[in-house]
Design brief:
Blueprint lengths: L2 H9 L6 H12 L8 E7 L7 E3 L16 H11 L7 E6 L7 E9 L14 H9 L5 E8 L2 E6 L2 E7 L4
Parallel strand pairs: 1-3
Antiparallel strand pairs: 1-5, 2-4, 3-4, 5-6, 6-7
Length: 167
């Protein structure tokens, strides 16, 4: 699907809710991804959250693809172009709460200074970074996909989790 067709498809759809995001990401968890973990960060108002630092990738796959049921195919294409994009979080941003999320940055380093007191012990860097980033004011949702589950973080808490199909 080219960018024009992607935009036309999204023009007929209303703004995405957290439920929409969880539904689409949950569908991903039923698929076999090319790498794990995968961290998806959803934010409003910026290209990437202030607690994230972009890492340069050459080649850098195209950005701008809307987050919808076709996004996993876009992700696989980008991974085939440059496998290093999985080293860090993938950011999806929207201008306002009345617009759709579009992929805005590959491979960002999470540098969240937030401490979450109720964090589960022994869960690792991806889990703890995702949890801490979810507290940032410009972050709407953080999704952590691992081989056997997907965790959804918002406001420093796990909001929802799904069991994945695994490797």
């Amino acid at each position: 699907m080219d960018d024009t067709e992607n935009r036309e498809n999204m023009a007929t759809v209303h703004a995405q809710s957290e439920f929409d995001l969880i539904r689409i990401v949950s569908e991903f968890s039923r698929s076999r991804l090319p790498w794990y973990p995968l961290i998806l960060v959803f934010c409003t108002g910026k290209k990437y959250p202030s607690d994230c630092i972009p890492m340069k990738r050459i080649p850098e796959p195209a950005t701008g693809h809307y987050f919808n049921g076709d996004f996993l195919r876009h992700l696989a294409t980008a991974f085939a172009e440059n496998e290093s994009i999985h080293d860090g979080a993938v950011v999806l941003a929207r201008e306002s709460s009345s617009t759709h999320y579009a992929q805005s940055a590959w491979s960002v380093r999470i540098a969240a200074p937030h401490v979450v007191e109720n964090a589960a012990p022994n869960r690792g860097a991806a889990y703890n970074s995702s949890l801490a980033l979810s507290v940032a004011p410009d972050v709407d949702l953080v999704c952590l996909l691992v081989r056997d589950r997907t965790d959804f973080f918002s406001n420093g808490e796990i909001q929802f989790l799904t069991e994945g199909r695994g490797a």
